[in-house]
Amino acid sequence: MKKKKSELPSKKCPVCGLPFSWRKKWEKNWEEVRYCSERCRRNKSVKNSIV
User: Fold this and answer.
1) d(Cα 5, Cα 50) in Å, to the nearest integer?
2) What are the residues facing 12 on neighbouring strands?
3) pTM of the model as a whole
């Protein structure tokens, strides 16, 4: 059974601050997913050094 996009879990990216929704590719490790994209994951240290 398919869920509507509004029913999927979401998180807030600590780098860009934007919300992102669950994706099929994150099905097995959704608890470990912290960043919305590879770009934000690579730039995580840039955000931390500014603050």
Assistant:
1) 34
2) 19
3) 0.71
Residue where the block lists tokens 């860009």: 16
Q: What is the pLDDT of residues 1-51, one digit of tens each?
A: 677 877 889 999 999 999 999 999 999 999 999 999 999 999 987 665 554
Instruction: Give the residues across from 20 on adjacent strands.
Output: 11
DSSP state letter for 25:
G
The three-state DSSP-derived secondary structure of 3-24 is CCHHHCCEEECCCCCCEEECCH
Question: Is the alpha carbon torsion for 34, 29, 21, 6 positive or negative?
Answer: negative
Asked if residues 43 and 14 have their Cβ atoms less than 8 Å apart, the reply is no
Strands 19-21 and 10-12: antiparallel
